[in-house]
Task: inverse folding
Protein backbone atom coordinates (compact mmCIF):
# COMPACT_ATOMS: atom_id res chain seq x y z
CA UNK A 1 0.00 0.00 0.00
CA UNK A 2 2.87 2.39 0.79
CA UNK A 3 4.27 1.71 -2.65
CA UNK A 4 0.88 2.44 -4.25
CA UNK A 5 0.48 5.65 -2.21
CA UNK A 6 3.96 6.85 -3.12
CA UNK A 7 3.73 6.31 -6.85
CA UNK A 8 0.11 7.30 -7.44
CA UNK A 9 0.89 10.49 -5.51
CA UNK A 10 4.03 11.25 -7.44
CA UNK A 11 3.36 10.32 -11.06
CA UNK A 12 0.64 12.89 -11.71
CA UNK A 13 1.28 14.95 -8.58
CA UNK A 14 2.46 17.97 -10.54
CA UNK A 15 -0.65 17.97 -12.69
CA UNK A 16 -2.76 17.46 -9.57
CA UNK A 17 -1.14 20.43 -7.83
CA UNK A 18 -1.94 22.71 -10.78
CA UNK A 19 -5.52 21.39 -10.82
CA UNK A 20 -5.91 21.94 -7.05
CA UNK A 21 -4.53 25.49 -7.06
CA UNK A 22 -6.51 26.69 -10.06
CA UNK A 23 -9.60 24.85 -8.83
CA UNK A 24 -9.27 26.62 -5.48
CA UNK A 25 -9.08 29.98 -7.26
CA UNK A 26 -12.21 28.98 -9.17
CA UNK A 27 -14.29 29.23 -5.99
CA UNK A 28 -13.91 32.99 -6.44
CA UNK A 29 -13.84 33.19 -10.21
CA UNK A 30 -16.49 35.93 -10.46
CA UNK A 31 -14.66 38.01 -7.86
CA UNK A 32 -11.34 37.48 -9.72
CA UNK A 33 -13.02 38.57 -12.95
CA UNK A 34 -14.30 41.72 -11.25
CA UNK A 35 -10.79 42.52 -10.03
CA UNK A 36 -9.40 41.91 -13.52
CA UNK A 37 -12.02 44.20 -15.08
CA UNK A 38 -12.01 47.29 -12.84
CA UNK A 39 -13.87 49.32 -15.49
CA UNK A 40 -16.92 47.10 -15.15
CA UNK A 41 -19.89 49.19 -13.92
CA UNK A 42 -22.10 47.99 -11.07
CA UNK A 43 -25.84 47.49 -11.54
CA UNK A 44 -28.65 46.32 -9.36
CA UNK A 45 -31.02 43.56 -10.40
CA UNK A 46 -34.04 45.85 -10.75
CA UNK A 47 -36.71 46.79 -13.28
CA UNK A 48 -34.75 49.91 -14.16
CA UNK A 49 -31.78 47.81 -15.28
CA UNK A 50 -34.04 45.52 -17.32
CA UNK A 51 -35.58 48.56 -18.99
CA UNK A 52 -32.14 50.01 -19.76
CA UNK A 53 -31.04 46.67 -21.24
CA UNK A 54 -34.07 46.44 -23.52
CA UNK A 55 -33.67 50.04 -24.64
CA UNK A 56 -30.02 49.34 -25.44
CA UNK A 57 -30.96 46.26 -27.51
CA UNK A 58 -33.62 48.25 -29.36
CA UNK A 59 -30.94 50.78 -30.21
CA UNK A 60 -28.09 48.50 -31.31
CA UNK A 61 -29.77 45.30 -32.52
CA UNK A 62 -33.31 46.04 -33.71
CA UNK A 63 -33.29 43.25 -36.30
CA UNK A 64 -31.67 40.50 -34.22
CA UNK A 65 -33.55 37.20 -33.97
CA UNK A 66 -32.73 36.69 -30.29
CA UNK A 67 -32.29 39.14 -27.46
CA UNK A 68 -31.18 38.59 -23.95
CA UNK A 69 -30.64 40.60 -20.79
CA UNK A 70 -28.60 39.17 -17.91
CA UNK A 71 -29.22 40.88 -14.62
CA UNK A 72 -26.37 40.84 -12.09
CA UNK A 73 -26.24 38.90 -8.87
CA UNK A 74 -24.28 39.77 -5.74
CA UNK A 75 -21.10 38.25 -7.19
CA UNK A 76 -21.08 39.25 -10.87
CA UNK A 77 -21.98 42.91 -10.31
CA UNK A 78 -22.68 44.10 -13.85
CA UNK A 79 -25.64 43.56 -16.18
CA UNK A 80 -25.07 42.62 -19.81
CA UNK A 81 -27.08 42.30 -22.98
CA UNK A 82 -26.61 39.81 -25.79
CA UNK A 83 -28.15 39.30 -29.20
CA UNK A 84 -27.93 36.90 -32.13
CA UNK A 85 -28.15 38.09 -35.70
CA UNK A 86 -27.25 34.87 -37.50
CA UNK A 87 -26.91 31.15 -36.86
CA UNK A 88 -23.93 29.78 -34.97
CA UNK A 89 -21.48 31.40 -32.59
CA UNK A 90 -20.42 34.03 -35.15
CA UNK A 91 -23.80 35.69 -35.00
CA UNK A 92 -23.75 35.90 -31.19
CA UNK A 93 -22.68 39.18 -29.57
CA UNK A 94 -22.53 40.40 -25.97
CA UNK A 95 -22.04 43.81 -24.43
CA UNK A 96 -21.75 45.11 -20.88
CA UNK A 97 -24.49 47.58 -20.09
CA UNK A 98 -23.30 51.13 -19.34
CA UNK A 99 -23.89 52.44 -15.82
CA UNK A 100 -27.49 53.65 -15.55
CA UNK A 101 -26.64 57.26 -14.76
CA UNK A 102 -24.22 57.50 -17.71
CA UNK A 103 -25.13 58.18 -21.30
CA UNK A 104 -23.17 57.33 -24.43
CA UNK A 105 -21.47 54.19 -25.69
CA UNK A 106 -20.92 50.98 -23.76
CA UNK A 107 -17.94 51.05 -21.36
CA UNK A 108 -14.63 49.83 -22.76
CA UNK A 109 -14.00 46.91 -20.45
CA UNK A 110 -10.55 45.36 -20.89
CA UNK A 111 -10.42 42.02 -22.67
CA UNK A 112 -9.44 39.30 -20.21
CA UNK A 113 -10.28 35.70 -19.49
CA UNK A 114 -10.58 36.68 -15.83
CA UNK A 115 -11.48 33.99 -13.33
CA UNK A 116 -12.84 31.89 -16.19
CA UNK A 117 -9.22 31.08 -17.10
CA UNK A 118 -8.67 29.30 -13.78
CA UNK A 119 -11.97 27.47 -14.14
CA UNK A 120 -11.15 26.19 -17.64
CA UNK A 121 -7.51 25.47 -16.81
CA UNK A 122 -8.34 23.28 -13.84
CA UNK A 123 -9.97 20.64 -16.02
CA UNK A 124 -8.63 21.39 -19.52
CA UNK A 125 -5.05 22.29 -18.55
CA UNK A 126 -4.72 24.52 -21.64
CA UNK A 127 -4.45 21.37 -23.78
CA UNK A 128 -6.42 20.62 -26.95
CA UNK A 129 -9.80 18.98 -26.46
CA UNK A 130 -10.26 16.25 -25.22
CA UNK A 131 -6.71 15.53 -23.97
CA UNK A 132 -6.79 18.03 -21.09
CA UNK A 133 -9.96 16.46 -19.73
CA UNK A 134 -8.53 12.97 -20.06
CA UNK A 135 -5.36 14.02 -18.23
CA UNK A 136 -7.38 15.75 -15.50
CA UNK A 137 -9.51 12.59 -15.17
CA UNK A 138 -6.38 10.43 -14.85
CA UNK A 139 -5.06 12.82 -12.17
CA UNK A 140 -8.38 12.57 -10.31
CA UNK A 141 -8.23 8.77 -10.45
CA UNK A 142 -4.65 8.78 -9.15
CA UNK A 143 -5.67 11.15 -6.36
CA UNK A 144 -8.53 8.86 -5.37
CA UNK A 145 -6.16 5.88 -5.26
CA UNK A 146 -3.57 7.87 -3.31
CA UNK A 147 -6.24 8.88 -0.77
CA UNK A 148 -7.49 5.33 -0.20
CA UNK A 149 -3.96 3.91 0.04
CA UNK A 150 -2.96 6.87 2.25
CA UNK A 151 -5.71 6.04 4.77
CA UNK A 152 -4.40 2.47 5.01
CA UNK A 153 -0.77 3.62 5.15
CA UNK A 154 -1.25 6.25 7.87
CA UNK A 155 -0.89 4.01 10.94
CA UNK A 156 -1.24 6.70 13.61
CA UNK A 157 -4.41 8.19 12.16
CA UNK A 158 -6.04 9.00 15.55
CA UNK A 159 -2.93 9.22 17.71
CA UNK A 160 -1.53 12.08 15.61
CA UNK A 161 -4.81 13.97 15.34
CA UNK A 162 -4.29 17.75 15.75
CA UNK A 163 -0.52 17.17 15.84
CA UNK A 164 1.81 19.45 13.93
CA UNK A 165 5.45 19.46 15.09
CA UNK A 166 6.89 22.64 13.68
CA UNK A 167 10.63 22.76 14.02
CA UNK A 168 13.96 22.41 12.33
CA UNK A 169 13.41 18.77 11.42
CA UNK A 170 12.31 19.37 7.84
CA UNK A 171 11.03 15.89 6.92
CA UNK A 172 9.14 15.54 10.26
CA UNK A 173 7.48 18.96 9.86
CA UNK A 174 6.64 18.26 6.23
CA UNK A 175 5.19 14.84 7.08
CA UNK A 176 3.08 16.35 9.89
CA UNK A 177 1.79 19.04 7.56
CA UNK A 178 0.99 16.36 4.97
CA UNK A 179 -0.88 14.27 7.56
CA UNK A 180 -2.75 17.17 9.18
CA UNK A 181 -3.99 18.59 5.88
CA UNK A 182 -4.86 15.08 4.68
CA UNK A 183 -6.79 13.90 7.74
CA UNK A 184 -8.72 17.08 8.55
CA UNK A 185 -10.19 17.58 5.08
CA UNK A 186 -10.35 13.94 4.00
CA UNK A 187 -14.10 13.94 3.14
CA UNK A 188 -13.53 16.96 0.91
CA UNK A 189 -10.71 15.26 -1.02
CA UNK A 190 -12.70 12.06 -1.44
CA UNK A 191 -15.64 14.11 -2.67
CA UNK A 192 -13.78 16.25 -5.19
CA UNK A 193 -11.69 13.43 -6.64
CA UNK A 194 -14.69 11.11 -7.01
CA UNK A 195 -16.99 13.86 -8.31
CA UNK A 196 -14.33 14.97 -10.80
CA UNK A 197 -14.54 11.49 -12.31
CA UNK A 198 -18.34 11.47 -12.25
CA UNK A 199 -18.66 14.88 -13.96
CA UNK A 200 -16.96 13.63 -17.13
CA UNK A 201 -18.07 10.02 -16.83
CA UNK A 202 -19.80 10.30 -20.22
CA UNK A 203 -16.30 10.87 -21.68
CA UNK A 204 -14.53 8.18 -19.68
CA UNK A 205 -17.38 5.66 -19.99
CA UNK A 206 -19.19 6.58 -23.23
CA UNK A 207 -21.12 3.28 -23.26
CA UNK A 208 -23.24 4.27 -20.27
CA UNK A 209 -25.71 6.20 -22.42
CA UNK A 210 -26.38 3.10 -24.50
CA UNK A 211 -27.19 1.12 -21.37
CA UNK A 212 -29.42 3.83 -19.87
CA UNK A 213 -31.18 5.53 -22.82
CA UNK A 214 -33.78 7.19 -20.54
CA UNK A 215 -30.95 9.16 -18.86
CA UNK A 216 -29.87 10.50 -22.23
CA UNK A 217 -33.38 11.70 -23.03
CA UNK A 218 -33.45 13.79 -19.87
CA UNK A 219 -30.51 15.76 -21.12
CA UNK A 220 -31.78 16.39 -24.66
CA UNK A 221 -31.32 20.06 -25.55
CA UNK A 222 -34.39 22.11 -26.48
CA UNK A 223 -35.16 22.59 -30.20
CA UNK A 224 -33.33 25.40 -31.99
CA UNK A 225 -35.08 28.76 -32.20
CA UNK A 226 -35.73 30.56 -35.47
CA UNK A 227 -33.72 33.54 -36.54
CA UNK A 228 -35.38 36.88 -37.23
CA UNK A 229 -38.03 37.08 -39.90
CA UNK A 230 -39.14 40.17 -41.81
CA UNK A 231 -42.48 40.55 -40.08
CA UNK A 232 -42.24 43.36 -37.52
CA UNK A 233 -45.68 42.34 -36.16
CA UNK A 234 -44.00 39.32 -34.54
CA UNK A 235 -41.77 41.49 -32.41
CA UNK A 236 -42.96 41.93 -28.83
CA UNK A 237 -42.82 45.58 -27.80
CA UNK A 238 -40.82 46.82 -24.83
CA UNK A 239 -43.86 47.74 -22.79
CA UNK A 240 -45.23 44.21 -23.07
CA UNK A 241 -41.88 42.65 -22.13
CA UNK A 242 -41.67 44.89 -19.06
CA UNK A 243 -45.24 43.97 -18.10
CA UNK A 244 -44.33 40.27 -18.41
CA UNK A 245 -41.19 40.95 -16.37
CA UNK A 246 -43.31 42.41 -13.59
CA UNK A 247 -45.58 39.37 -13.74
CA UNK A 248 -42.66 36.91 -13.57
CA UNK A 249 -40.95 38.89 -10.84
CA UNK A 250 -44.03 39.09 -8.64
CA UNK A 251 -44.88 35.41 -9.09
CA UNK A 252 -41.36 34.39 -8.08
CA UNK A 253 -40.68 36.83 -5.29
CA UNK A 254 -44.15 36.18 -3.79
CA UNK A 255 -42.71 32.86 -2.63
CA UNK A 256 -39.25 32.68 -1.21
CA UNK A 257 -36.23 32.79 -3.44
CA UNK A 258 -34.53 34.96 -6.01
CA UNK A 259 -36.30 36.97 -8.66
CA UNK A 260 -35.72 37.19 -12.43
CA UNK A 261 -32.09 36.82 -13.43
CA UNK A 262 -32.30 36.41 -17.18
CA UNK A 263 -34.57 37.46 -20.05
CA UNK A 264 -34.58 35.82 -23.45
CA UNK A 265 -36.67 36.95 -26.41
CA UNK A 266 -36.56 34.31 -29.15
CA UNK A 267 -37.74 34.07 -32.77
CA UNK A 268 -38.36 37.81 -32.93
CA UNK A 269 -40.27 39.06 -35.97
CA UNK A 270 -41.78 35.61 -36.53
CA UNK A 271 -45.17 34.20 -35.51
CA UNK A 272 -43.35 31.91 -33.00
CA UNK A 273 -41.91 34.83 -31.02
CA UNK A 274 -41.54 34.04 -27.31
CA UNK A 275 -40.45 35.80 -24.14
CA UNK A 276 -38.87 33.72 -21.38
CA UNK A 277 -37.60 34.60 -17.91
CA UNK A 278 -35.36 32.43 -15.80
CA UNK A 279 -33.77 32.44 -12.39
CA UNK A 280 -31.23 30.24 -10.66
CA UNK A 281 -32.71 28.52 -7.67
CA UNK A 282 -30.79 28.26 -4.46
CA UNK A 283 -31.23 25.91 -1.56
CA UNK A 284 -30.28 22.48 -2.87
CA UNK A 285 -26.75 21.29 -3.47
CA UNK A 286 -27.50 19.64 -6.83
CA UNK A 287 -27.07 21.31 -10.20
CA UNK A 288 -30.50 22.47 -11.26
CA UNK A 289 -31.83 23.75 -14.52
CA UNK A 290 -32.93 27.36 -14.07
CA UNK A 291 -36.61 27.81 -13.25
CA UNK A 292 -38.29 29.23 -16.33
CA UNK A 293 -41.46 31.18 -17.14
CA UNK A 294 -42.32 31.44 -20.83
CA UNK A 295 -44.85 33.67 -22.60
CA UNK A 296 -46.16 33.95 -26.13
CA UNK A 297 -44.33 36.88 -27.71
CA UNK A 298 -47.39 38.13 -29.61
CA UNK A 299 -50.23 37.70 -27.13
CA UNK A 300 -48.36 37.70 -23.82
CA UNK A 301 -50.13 34.52 -22.73
CA UNK A 302 -48.23 32.14 -20.48
CA UNK A 303 -46.94 29.01 -22.20
CA UNK A 304 -47.26 25.77 -20.27
CA UNK A 305 -43.89 24.35 -19.23
CA UNK A 306 -43.13 20.72 -19.96
CA UNK A 307 -41.33 18.96 -17.17
CA UNK A 308 -38.83 16.41 -18.41
CA UNK A 309 -38.60 13.09 -16.60
CA UNK A 310 -35.36 12.82 -14.64
CA UNK A 311 -33.80 9.40 -14.14
CA UNK A 312 -32.18 8.38 -10.86
CA UNK A 313 -28.70 8.39 -12.41
CA UNK A 314 -29.23 11.95 -13.68
CA UNK A 315 -30.44 13.01 -10.23
CA UNK A 316 -27.39 11.52 -8.49
CA UNK A 317 -25.11 12.98 -11.15
CA UNK A 318 -26.58 16.45 -10.61
CA UNK A 319 -26.00 16.26 -6.82
CA UNK A 320 -22.38 15.10 -7.22
CA UNK A 321 -21.79 17.73 -9.91
CA UNK A 322 -23.31 20.42 -7.68
CA UNK A 323 -21.16 19.40 -4.72
CA UNK A 324 -18.01 19.69 -6.84
CA UNK A 325 -18.87 23.14 -8.19
CA UNK A 326 -20.27 24.42 -4.85
CA UNK A 327 -22.43 27.04 -6.58
CA UNK A 328 -24.92 26.70 -3.73
CA UNK A 329 -22.39 28.04 -1.24
CA UNK A 330 -22.84 31.44 0.34
CA UNK A 331 -19.84 33.62 1.10
CA UNK A 332 -18.97 31.95 4.45
CA UNK A 333 -19.14 28.43 3.08
CA UNK A 334 -17.29 29.54 -0.06
CA UNK A 335 -14.38 30.72 2.11
CA UNK A 336 -14.51 27.35 3.86
CA UNK A 337 -14.20 25.56 0.51
CA UNK A 338 -11.36 27.93 -0.41
CA UNK A 339 -9.46 27.06 2.80
CA UNK A 340 -9.95 23.35 2.09
CA UNK A 341 -8.71 23.87 -1.47
CA UNK A 342 -5.59 25.51 -0.05
CA UNK A 343 -5.19 22.59 2.36
CA UNK A 344 -5.46 20.22 -0.62
CA UNK A 345 -2.77 22.16 -2.47
CA UNK A 346 -0.52 21.96 0.61
CA UNK A 347 -1.27 18.23 0.87
CA UNK A 348 -0.11 17.58 -2.71
CA UNK A 349 2.90 19.91 -2.43
CA UNK A 350 4.13 18.35 0.83
CA UNK A 351 3.63 14.87 -0.63
CA UNK A 352 5.80 15.78 -3.61
CA UNK A 353 8.50 17.35 -1.43
CA UNK A 354 8.47 14.39 0.98
CA UNK A 355 9.34 12.05 -1.86
CA UNK A 356 12.64 13.87 -2.38
CA UNK A 357 13.35 14.53 1.32
CA UNK A 358 13.06 10.85 2.19
CA UNK A 359 15.45 9.78 -0.54
CA UNK A 360 17.90 12.64 -0.55
CA UNK A 361 20.17 11.57 2.32
CA UNK A 362 20.36 8.04 1.00
CA UNK A 363 21.54 9.31 -2.38
CA UNK A 364 23.97 11.76 -0.80
CA UNK A 365 25.58 9.11 1.41
CA UNK A 366 25.96 6.99 -1.72
CA UNK A 367 27.74 9.98 -3.27
CA UNK A 368 25.54 10.29 -6.32
CA UNK A 369 22.10 11.78 -7.02
CA UNK A 370 20.33 9.79 -9.74
CA UNK A 371 18.76 11.61 -12.67
CA UNK A 372 15.22 10.65 -11.54
CA UNK A 373 15.73 12.32 -8.18
CA UNK A 374 17.30 15.37 -9.80
CA UNK A 375 14.32 15.61 -12.16
CA UNK A 376 11.68 15.23 -9.42
CA UNK A 377 13.34 17.97 -7.30
CA UNK A 378 13.27 20.36 -10.27
CA UNK A 379 9.75 19.50 -11.30
CA UNK A 380 8.57 19.98 -7.70
CA UNK A 381 10.03 23.45 -7.56
CA UNK A 382 8.92 24.44 -11.06
CA UNK A 383 5.41 23.27 -10.28
CA UNK A 384 4.95 24.58 -6.73
CA UNK A 385 6.71 27.95 -6.87
CA UNK A 386 6.60 28.19 -10.68
CA UNK A 387 2.81 27.99 -10.81
CA UNK A 388 2.48 30.89 -8.37
CA UNK A 389 4.99 32.90 -10.41
CA UNK A 390 2.84 32.21 -13.48
CA UNK A 391 -0.34 33.28 -11.68
CA UNK A 392 1.38 36.43 -10.43
CA UNK A 393 2.57 37.18 -13.97
CA UNK A 394 -1.01 36.76 -15.24
CA UNK A 395 -2.29 39.37 -12.76
CA UNK A 396 0.57 41.78 -13.51
CA UNK A 397 -0.07 41.37 -17.26
CA UNK A 398 -3.72 42.17 -16.62
CA UNK A 399 -2.77 45.55 -15.21
CA UNK A 400 0.23 46.36 -17.46
CA UNK A 401 -0.81 45.28 -20.98
CA UNK A 402 -2.41 48.11 -22.98
CA UNK A 403 -6.21 48.01 -22.90
CA UNK A 404 -6.39 48.40 -26.68
CA UNK A 405 -4.11 45.43 -27.41
CA UNK A 406 -5.73 43.05 -29.90
CA UNK A 407 -6.25 39.61 -28.37
CA UNK A 408 -5.39 40.98 -24.95
CA UNK A 409 -6.98 38.09 -23.07
CA UNK A 410 -4.82 35.60 -24.99
CA UNK A 411 -1.72 37.70 -24.30
CA UNK A 412 -2.40 37.45 -20.58
CA UNK A 413 -2.55 33.66 -20.86
CA UNK A 414 0.67 33.71 -22.90
CA UNK A 415 2.34 35.67 -20.07
CA UNK A 416 1.15 32.97 -17.63
CA UNK A 417 2.63 30.18 -19.77
CA UNK A 418 5.90 31.99 -20.58
CA UNK A 419 6.45 32.81 -16.89
CA UNK A 420 5.88 29.17 -15.96
CA UNK A 421 8.29 28.05 -18.70
CA UNK A 422 10.89 30.55 -17.45
CA UNK A 423 10.53 29.17 -13.92
CA UNK A 424 11.21 25.67 -15.27
CA UNK A 425 14.33 26.87 -17.10
CA UNK A 426 15.52 28.68 -13.98
CA UNK A 427 15.42 25.54 -11.81
CA UNK A 428 17.39 23.62 -14.43
CA UNK A 429 20.35 26.00 -14.25
CA UNK A 430 20.41 26.85 -10.51
CA UNK A 431 21.14 24.73 -7.41
CA UNK A 432 17.80 23.56 -6.13
CA UNK A 433 17.77 25.25 -2.69
CA UNK A 434 18.91 28.57 -4.12
CA UNK A 435 16.28 28.23 -6.81
CA UNK A 436 13.63 27.65 -4.10
CA UNK A 437 14.68 30.85 -2.32
CA UNK A 438 14.83 32.90 -5.50
CA UNK A 439 11.49 31.71 -6.79
CA UNK A 440 9.78 32.19 -3.42
CA UNK A 441 11.14 35.74 -3.24
CA UNK A 442 9.78 36.36 -6.73
CA UNK A 443 6.37 34.96 -5.73
CA UNK A 444 6.40 37.21 -2.65
CA UNK A 445 7.28 40.24 -4.76
CA UNK A 446 4.64 39.50 -7.42
CA UNK A 447 1.81 38.90 -4.96
CA UNK A 448 2.55 41.49 -2.30
CA UNK A 449 3.14 44.08 -5.04
CA UNK A 450 -0.26 43.52 -6.63
CA UNK A 451 -2.30 45.87 -4.39
CA UNK A 452 0.24 48.62 -5.06
CA UNK A 453 0.14 47.96 -8.80
CA UNK A 454 -3.66 47.97 -8.62
CA UNK A 455 -3.57 51.36 -6.90
CA UNK A 456 -1.25 52.86 -9.52
CA UNK A 457 -2.91 51.43 -12.62
CA UNK A 458 -6.59 51.14 -11.73
CA UNK A 459 -6.73 53.66 -8.90
CA UNK A 460 -8.25 51.17 -6.49
CA UNK A 461 -6.61 51.64 -3.12
CA UNK A 462 -7.32 48.94 -0.58
CA UNK A 463 -8.78 51.42 1.89
CA UNK A 464 -10.76 53.10 -0.89
CA UNK A 465 -12.24 49.74 -1.97
CA UNK A 466 -13.33 49.08 1.60
CA UNK A 467 -14.85 52.53 2.00
CA UNK A 468 -16.72 52.11 -1.30
CA UNK A 469 -18.05 48.74 -0.15
CA UNK A 470 -16.23 46.88 -2.92
CA UNK A 471 -15.58 43.91 -0.67
CA UNK A 472 -14.68 41.48 -3.45
CA UNK A 473 -11.96 43.83 -4.69
CA UNK A 474 -10.65 44.46 -1.16
CA UNK A 475 -10.72 40.74 -0.30
CA UNK A 476 -8.69 39.97 -3.43
CA UNK A 477 -6.05 42.52 -2.44
CA UNK A 478 -5.87 41.19 1.13
CA UNK A 479 -5.69 37.57 -0.11
CA UNK A 480 -2.76 38.26 -2.46
CA UNK A 481 -1.01 40.24 0.29
CA UNK A 482 -1.33 37.24 2.62
CA UNK A 483 -0.06 34.87 -0.08
CA UNK A 484 2.91 37.17 -0.65
CA UNK A 485 3.57 37.23 3.10
CA UNK A 486 3.53 33.42 3.29
CA UNK A 487 6.01 33.26 0.40
CA UNK A 488 8.28 35.82 2.19
CA UNK A 489 8.17 33.76 5.38
CA UNK A 490 9.01 30.57 3.50
CA UNK A 491 11.93 32.28 1.73
CA UNK A 492 13.26 33.68 5.03
CA UNK A 493 12.95 30.28 6.71
CA UNK A 494 14.93 28.66 3.90
CA UNK A 495 17.60 31.38 4.11
CA UNK A 496 18.05 30.94 7.87
CA UNK A 497 18.56 27.18 7.68
CA UNK A 498 22.08 26.15 8.73
CA UNK A 499 24.15 24.70 5.96
CA UNK A 500 26.64 21.92 6.66
CA UNK A 501 29.00 20.86 3.95
CA UNK A 502 28.75 17.24 2.82
CA UNK A 503 31.70 14.98 3.40
CA UNK A 504 31.68 13.80 -0.19
CA UNK A 505 31.30 15.86 -3.30
CA UNK A 506 28.27 14.97 -5.31
CA UNK A 507 28.01 13.88 -8.85
CA UNK A 508 24.87 14.61 -10.71
CA UNK A 509 23.77 14.52 -14.34
CA UNK A 510 24.76 17.70 -16.23
CA UNK A 511 23.63 20.32 -13.73
CA UNK A 512 25.36 22.88 -11.49
CA UNK A 513 26.83 21.89 -8.10
CA UNK A 514 24.00 21.03 -5.73
CA UNK A 515 23.53 22.14 -2.15
CA UNK A 516 24.40 19.94 0.82
CA UNK A 517 22.02 17.36 2.18
CA UNK A 518 21.79 18.95 5.60
CA UNK A 519 19.86 21.84 4.15
CA UNK A 520 16.82 19.68 3.76
CA UNK A 521 17.35 16.94 6.33
CA UNK B 1 -25.25 29.31 9.16
CA UNK B 2 -21.59 28.60 8.33
CA UNK B 3 -20.46 31.06 11.02
CA UNK B 4 -22.73 29.52 13.66
CA UNK B 5 -21.51 26.04 12.80
CA UNK B 6 -17.88 27.18 12.99
CA UNK B 7 -18.37 28.74 16.41
CA UNK B 8 -19.94 25.51 17.68
CA UNK B 9 -17.54 23.10 16.02
CA UNK B 10 -14.33 24.92 17.03
CA UNK B 11 -14.83 24.56 20.83
CA UNK B 12 -16.09 21.00 20.33
CA UNK B 13 -12.91 20.01 18.51
CA UNK B 14 -10.87 21.87 21.14
CA UNK B 15 -12.54 19.70 23.81
CA UNK B 16 -11.71 16.55 21.84
CA UNK B 17 -8.11 17.76 21.47
CA UNK B 18 -7.63 18.34 25.20
CA UNK B 19 -9.07 14.88 25.83
CA UNK B 20 -5.79 13.60 24.34
CA UNK B 21 -2.99 13.38 26.99
CA UNK B 22 -0.33 15.04 24.79
CA UNK B 23 -2.45 18.05 23.90
CA UNK B 24 -3.91 18.30 27.43
CA UNK B 25 -0.38 18.65 28.84
CA UNK B 26 0.45 21.39 26.34
CA UNK B 27 -2.74 23.34 27.01
CA UNK B 28 -3.09 23.03 30.81
CA UNK B 29 0.45 22.07 31.84
CA UNK B 30 -0.69 19.03 33.85
CA UNK B 31 -1.54 15.40 33.28
CA UNK B 32 -5.02 14.35 32.21
CA UNK B 33 -7.05 12.34 34.72
CA UNK B 34 -9.07 9.39 33.32
CA UNK B 35 -12.36 10.92 34.49
CA UNK B 36 -11.42 14.22 32.90
CA UNK B 37 -10.78 12.51 29.59
CA UNK B 38 -14.32 11.11 29.55
CA UNK B 39 -15.80 14.53 30.35
CA UNK B 40 -13.81 16.30 27.61
CA UNK B 41 -14.78 13.63 25.10
CA UNK B 42 -18.43 13.89 26.07
CA UNK B 43 -18.36 17.68 25.72
CA UNK B 44 -16.61 17.50 22.34
CA UNK B 45 -18.83 14.81 20.87
CA UNK B 46 -21.93 16.52 22.27
CA UNK B 47 -20.98 19.82 20.69
CA UNK B 48 -20.35 18.23 17.32
CA UNK B 49 -23.68 16.39 17.48
CA UNK B 50 -25.48 19.59 18.49
CA UNK B 51 -23.96 21.40 15.49
CA UNK B 52 -24.94 18.50 13.23
CA UNK B 53 -28.48 18.58 14.61
CA UNK B 54 -28.67 22.30 13.94
CA UNK B 55 -27.54 21.75 10.34
CA UNK B 56 -29.97 18.89 9.74
CA UNK B 57 -32.99 20.72 11.13
CA UNK B 58 -32.47 23.87 9.08
CA UNK B 59 -34.53 24.62 5.98
CA UNK B 60 -31.54 24.26 3.64
CA UNK B 61 -30.34 21.14 5.39
CA UNK B 62 -28.49 19.67 2.40
CA UNK B 63 -26.30 22.75 2.01
CA UNK B 64 -25.88 23.03 5.79
CA UNK B 65 -24.81 19.41 6.06
CA UNK B 66 -22.04 20.22 3.58
CA UNK B 67 -21.25 23.35 5.63
CA UNK B 68 -20.93 21.20 8.77
CA UNK B 69 -18.36 18.98 7.02
CA UNK B 70 -16.44 21.95 5.65
CA UNK B 71 -16.36 23.73 9.01
CA UNK B 72 -15.03 20.54 10.65
CA UNK B 73 -11.93 20.86 8.50
CA UNK B 74 -11.57 24.62 8.95
CA UNK B 75 -12.01 24.43 12.74
CA UNK B 76 -9.71 21.40 12.92
CA UNK B 77 -6.99 23.35 11.15
CA UNK B 78 -7.43 26.29 13.53
CA UNK B 79 -7.26 24.00 16.60
CA UNK B 80 -4.14 22.30 15.23
CA UNK B 81 -2.28 25.56 14.65
CA UNK B 82 -3.32 26.98 18.01
CA UNK B 83 -2.09 23.79 19.71
CA UNK B 84 1.22 24.21 17.92
CA UNK B 85 1.91 27.92 18.32
CA UNK B 86 -0.27 29.13 21.24
CA UNK B 87 -1.64 26.13 23.18
CA UNK B 88 -2.39 28.11 26.34
CA UNK B 89 -4.87 30.40 24.59
CA UNK B 90 -6.94 27.54 23.16
CA UNK B 91 -9.51 27.46 26.05
CA UNK B 92 -10.02 31.23 25.86
CA UNK B 93 -10.48 31.19 22.08
CA UNK B 94 -12.88 28.27 22.43
CA UNK B 95 -14.99 30.14 24.98
CA UNK B 96 -15.03 33.30 22.85
CA UNK B 97 -16.14 31.26 19.82
CA UNK B 98 -18.89 29.58 21.83
CA UNK B 99 -20.15 32.90 23.16
CA UNK B 100 -20.32 34.26 19.60
CA UNK B 101 -22.60 31.45 18.42
CA UNK B 102 -25.91 32.91 19.72
CA UNK B 103 -25.06 36.36 18.35
CA UNK B 104 -24.30 34.93 14.92
CA UNK B 105 -27.47 32.83 14.99
CA UNK B 106 -29.53 35.92 15.84
CA UNK B 107 -27.79 37.96 13.14
CA UNK B 108 -28.71 35.27 10.62
Result:
Amino acid sequence: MTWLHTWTGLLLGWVLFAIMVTGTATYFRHEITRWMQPEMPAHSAERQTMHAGLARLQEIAPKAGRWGVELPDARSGAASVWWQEGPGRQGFKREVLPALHQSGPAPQVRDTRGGEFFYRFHFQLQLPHPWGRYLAGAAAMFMFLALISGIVTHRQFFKDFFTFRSGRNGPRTTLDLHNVTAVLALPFYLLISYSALVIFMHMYLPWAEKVLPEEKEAGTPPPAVKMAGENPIGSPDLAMILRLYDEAQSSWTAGEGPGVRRLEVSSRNTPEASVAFSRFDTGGVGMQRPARLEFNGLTGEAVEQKTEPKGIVTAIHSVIYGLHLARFAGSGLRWGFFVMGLMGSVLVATGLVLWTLKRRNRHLSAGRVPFGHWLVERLNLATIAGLFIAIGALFWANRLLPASLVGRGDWEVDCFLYAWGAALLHVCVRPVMRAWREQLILVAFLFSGLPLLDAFTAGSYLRGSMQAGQWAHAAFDVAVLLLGLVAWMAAVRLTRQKVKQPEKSLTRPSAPQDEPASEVA
Amino acid sequence: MSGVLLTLIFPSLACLAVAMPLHHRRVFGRELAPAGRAVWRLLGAGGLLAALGLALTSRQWTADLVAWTVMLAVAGLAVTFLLTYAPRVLPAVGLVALSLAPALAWWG
Summary: Chain A has 20 helices and seven strands.
